[in-house]
């Protein structure tokens, strides 16, 4: 059966420090293999490190509010999204999706978008797109393999959570959004996904074989929320 996948592509995968050409080539190959099987994709691209660099620079130079910092981040996601859209050439819709409340009818197999509006990350846009296009499962790809009970980069005793509820995730992420916040899933998006009874799979996007397994409905490494 043909499927429509909604994927959040973390900005940390696109630009960990410099643009990761090797990763993007591999990701393109995996997605196009699915496209040839008749599947469609909505790819929502995050800002990652480049987003936080812009926000940090802006805050150091001028006294700006949280909304201005969010707009800075949103624009960085649009730039990343444009790169991904152009990588897929004729297979992707020609414009970047910027507002999930404006449903785009696209004949191409791939639609690429970025952030939406202040007060949330690109995860929030992704959840909105999932509901608009009637997809019950979202794939959240970043540079971590699982959701952990605390930051594994800071705590050696952090435990991976292979299955957890939305409330359990909110205990980890907190309930408030801060521009540039680095969490497995945006708390505002988490609440909206919970309300709409969506399921989110968190996985390491760098592991492209694992991504293939996930897309093929096979056993995969990652956390399932919801």
UniProtKB/TrEMBL annotation:
E.C. number(s) listed in UniProt: 2.7.4.22
UniProt GO molecular function: ATP binding; UMP kinase activity
Domain Aspartate/glutamate/uridylate kinase, first and last residues per copy: 3-204
UniProt keyword DNA damage, yes or no: no
Pfam families: AA_kinase (PF00696)
Keyword Transferase: yes
Keywords: ATP-binding, Cytoplasm, Kinase, Nucleotide-binding, Pyrimidine biosynthesis, Transferase
Biological-process GO terms, alphabetical: UDP biosynthetic process
Domain of life: Bacteria
Protein name: UMP kinase
Species name: Candidatus Doudnabacteria bacterium CG10_big_fil_rev_8_21_14_0_10_42_18
């Amino acid at each position: 059966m043909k499927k429509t996948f909604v994927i959040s592509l973390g900005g940390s995968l696109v630009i960990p420090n410099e643009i990761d050409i090797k990763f993007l080539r591999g990701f393109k190959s995996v997605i196009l293999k699915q496209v040839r099987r008749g599947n469609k994709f909505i790819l929502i691209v995050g800002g990652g490190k480049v987003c936080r660099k812009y926000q940090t620079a802006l805050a150091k130079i001028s006294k700006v509010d949280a909304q201005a910092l969010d707009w800075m981040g949103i624009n960085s996601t649009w730039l990343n999204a444009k790169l991904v859209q152009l990588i897929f050439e004729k297979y992707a819709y020609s414009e970047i999706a910027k507002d999930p409340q404006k449903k785009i009818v696209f004949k191409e197999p791939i639609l690429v978008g970025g952030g939406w509006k202040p007060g949330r990350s690109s995860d929030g846009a992704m959840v909105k797109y999932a509901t608009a296009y009637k997809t019950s499962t979202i794939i959240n790809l970043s540079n971590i393999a699982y959701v952990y009970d605390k930051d594994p980069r800071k705590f050696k005793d952090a435990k991976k959570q292979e299955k957890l509820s939305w409330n359990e995730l909110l205990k980890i992420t907190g309930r408030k959004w801060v521009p540039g916040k680095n969490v497995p899933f945006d708390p505002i998006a988490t609440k909206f996904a919970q309300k709409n009874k969506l399921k989110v799979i968190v996985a390491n996007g760098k592991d492209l074989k694992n991504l293939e397994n996930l897309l093929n409905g096979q056993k995969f490494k990652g956390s399932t929320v919801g």
